[in-house]
Amino acid sequence: MIKVSEVTKKYPARLAVDNISFEVNRGEIVGFLGPNGAGKTTTMRMLAGYFPMNSGSIEVAGFDVRKDAREVRKRIGYLPESCPLYPEMRVDEYLRFRAELKGVKSSARKAKIAEVKEQCGLTDVGKRIIGQLSKGYRQRVGLADSLVHDPDLLILDEPTVGLDPIQIRQVRELIKQLAERHTILLSTHILQEVEAICERILIINEGKIVASDTEENLHRKLHACAVIEMEVAAEKAHAIGRVNALPGLDVRNSNALPDGWLRMEIEADSPEMRVDLFNLAVTEGWVLRELSEQEHSLEDTFVQITRNLGVTP
Amino acid sequence: MNVFFSLFKKELRTCFLSPIAYVVMFFFWALTGGNFVWLLSQLAHGESLTVAAQLMFSGPLLTFALPVVIPLITMRLFAEERKLGTLESLLTTSVRVPELVLSKFAGALVFYMVLWLPILVYAYIQSRLCPAEGIAFPDAGALRAGGLGVVLVGGLYVSVGLFMSSLTSNQIVAAISGFALLFGSTLGMAIMAYSSTTSSIRIVGQYLSSFAHMMDFSRGIVDSRTIVLYLSYTALFLFTSVKAVEARRP
């Protein structure tokens, strides 16, 4: 669906996107993740044909973004970052205007607008003035606009930014529903968002794609080693010494709890080394009340990837 | 063509929904009304019909009001789209930039022509007030030529204002730079044409001064050189506006 090959974009003062290549297949829902200023918006604008690139090529549905810009735009539903709308227009007026611009045939226009309003939960606000709608509703109007010409590909630039938690959940649900019929590329700097919605993740940092994989694979790759949490009743210095003495185990953090227990975070070569720790507790005669593998969030992954590259997110 | 028409409709609607349109309308209509009262009092004091007819379209009041009024109409056109970010959503549909520029130009020009509508009422009043024997006043030919002049000069001014608006995301900057360029050139050319002691400067000034051109149009003189001058300058500013928008500065 999308094929980006060796694309570079320079701004006068800096390199925004540095020789990136990636592909998105039909029907996928891909999260484009990166810290602010990493080049997400620039990449999306190039995909939508708004910014020219300095070198490289982008194909969308088999059309070159530079040579067949109009064909590409017909196939893309693009929601820019700030969700720009005309505040003085009514929702129905705006959607009709956008449908006209996007060449939706006049015979199909009414039905199509009704359909996207239904999809985006806008049926009751058609007569309202956009400037008086809440941020969540405006975001839905933007989404409805990006859907109105029935595009193959949706490019959503930070679709949930500035929404309250309930609105965020609603918009995410909506995007998930849309994934049944459209290929979606969505950018965000919020990690839970990609965890909640996306099948595959592209991580971009300082203009470079630093990772591209499914969420589980990213975890597996980065966490071949595990972190084990252990709570025992033992004297602190002694316990740490005994654990560190075992091969492949290293106490990263330890904490004497107020109720007299000792809590340790232990880096291990594999989660299976919990068995060794249990055996240690038995031989030392420690009472053990917790022994578990720490769950890693995508946040850890992300921090680790960016840290591995020597940058702070 | 359909796309152009949708854009044009939207442009007109936005224009007539903005409060600034009615403020501009109020002041311009007050001004043309005052101008007409002046014209009538000149006639009452026995001024010649030719001089009185000139006042219809080209009194000094009107000549120097247009450089103020038109930037107020045009400042919104692109500056607002940039500010709202809607330029990005427009240019990522299959809209072509020249279509967009022309639709905005046409919308603003239509609003400008609405500003001039009271002139029809004044012409009617004149024709009722002065039933002079054997003299057709106001002269139909002079009225038509004046109308043509109003559209030509207005077209150029609108294209200048549009260009200024295409360069910035700040409406105030667009309005002030448009005003400075239009007012400065109108005043400068008028000074060249009427107050210079050097005859060569005076001739150049008369070729270029919109004040002088509007005087001619009001007397019913339609000079094809003037028409070409205005159309080509208008085209030039529309073209540069297209280029400015295509440069796509965020």
From TrEMBL, chain A:
This is ABC transporter ATP-binding protein NatA. SUPFAM superfamilies: P-loop containing nucleoside triphosphate hydrolases. Residues 2-231 form the ABC transporter domain. It comes from the Bacteria. The gene is natA_1. CDD domains: ABC_DR_subfamily_A. Belongs to the ABC transporter superfamily. The lineage of its organism: Bacteria, Pseudomonadati, Kiritimatiellota, Kiritimatiellia, Kiritimatiellales. Keywords: ATP-binding, Nodulation, Nucleotide-binding, Transport.
TrEMBL record, chain B:
It is a multi-pass membrane protein. It holds the Pfam family ABC2_membrane_3. Keywords: Cell membrane, Membrane, Transmembrane, Transmembrane helix. The keyword Disulfide bond does not apply. InterPro entries: ABC-2_transporter_component, ABC2_TM. Its main location: membrane. One of its GO terms (molecular function) is ABC-type transporter activity. The chain crosses the membrane at residues 20-41, 61-79, 100-125, 145-165, 172-194, 227-245. Residues 54-237 form the ABC-2 type transporter transmembrane domain. It is found in: Cell membrane. GO terms for cellular component: plasma membrane. The keyword RNA-binding does not apply. PANTHER family: MEMBRANE COMPONENT OF ABC TRANSPORTER YHHJ-RELATED, MULTIDRUG ABC TRANSPORTER PERMEASE YBHS-RELATED. This is ABC-2 type transporter transmembrane domain-containing protein.
